[in-house]
Automatic annotation (TrEMBL):
Protein keywords: Membrane, Transmembrane, Transmembrane helix
Residues of the STAS domain: 8-98
Top-level lineage group: Bacteria
Protein name: STAS domain-containing protein
InterPro entries named in the record: MlaB-like_STAS, Permease_MalE, STAS_dom, STAS_dom_sf
TM stretches of this protein: 167-188, 260-291, 312-332, 344-367
Amino acid sequence: MRSGTLADSLQVQEGQDGRVVSLSGRLDTPAAASLWTSLMAEARKPGAPLVLDLAAVEAVDTTGATLLLTAQSAAEGGRIENASPGVVAVLDRVRDALAAPRPKVVPYRFSPLSGIGRRVVNALRGGVESLAFLGELLINALGTLIRPGRLRARELLRHLDEAGTRAFGLAVLLGSLLGVILAFQSAIPLRQFGAEVFVPSLVGISLLRELGPLMAGVVLAGRTGSAYAAELGTMTVNEEVAALRIMGIDPMALLVLPRVLAGILVMPVLSLVLTLAGLVGMAIVMALLGFQMTTVAQQLTNFVSLKDLMGGLFKAAVFGLAISVVGCRAGLGAGRGPRAVGDAATAAVVGGIVAIVVLDGAFAVLYERLGL
């Protein structure tokens, strides 16, 4: 008979009846990791049957039991002997777990048709949810007209300040730069025909009818739309919106309606501020080109009418409605997890900009048909 030590807690003895591997101590995960290579090498040796003697083993965990069962199955005629009842119970549970059927691996199949269908279904579902959101908002707005006390004036004033007053500086900066750029770029081609005097009318009409509301919408979507989505998304993730519903408080009237109303009221003012700043920037460029301010003013009064201003302000109000609704919808529809708020803010900005561009195109066709 030969005896040798493979590890601190593992001994092997060879005799005529087989090889007996004696283990001692606690066979936990660290011990199993250190003994795995030695025990498996011993189990795979050809020759006499392998006997795992667990008389000195105090306890095993699932890793140790996996090692013992794997060594038993790897050896020819391997068996486990002298295990305590607690060790036997762990071995039985691990043996049942190893014998359980593995989950079926479904191979991935690239299917463009199913991907397109899934996207179409998700888009239709999102459209239906958006229509439901608009309907609920309309019902709350009509209910507020009947009962004005439902609208919290303090919240409305706070959102007017955050969306409007704090954005005036950015609107002035963007408007003045836009006016300077438009004036310079318009003067270059018109100079070839000696028509630089028409730069004020060109820039004025562009700012009043198109660029003023559009750029103000971009500012509102970037600042306020994302803020709405982040605030409401955080409340949704923290289940504050659900708590309001449980207490019988309608989140549409408390959270959404003041924000939407603030967006509608702020956008015409932002558009007007941005347009006036753009006209000032254009006037500075015209002065640098040698034109008198009286000439600039005369061109503006001759070619820019009140309907241009009112049409631009009406578009701005509609843009504010769209941006506010998209931002609130993205916030209340936020999912769960650490990325939910960021995804909601991104969806609000992208959706708001896309919405105002689409609406601007629709207004262009409508004004052309109406002769405005």
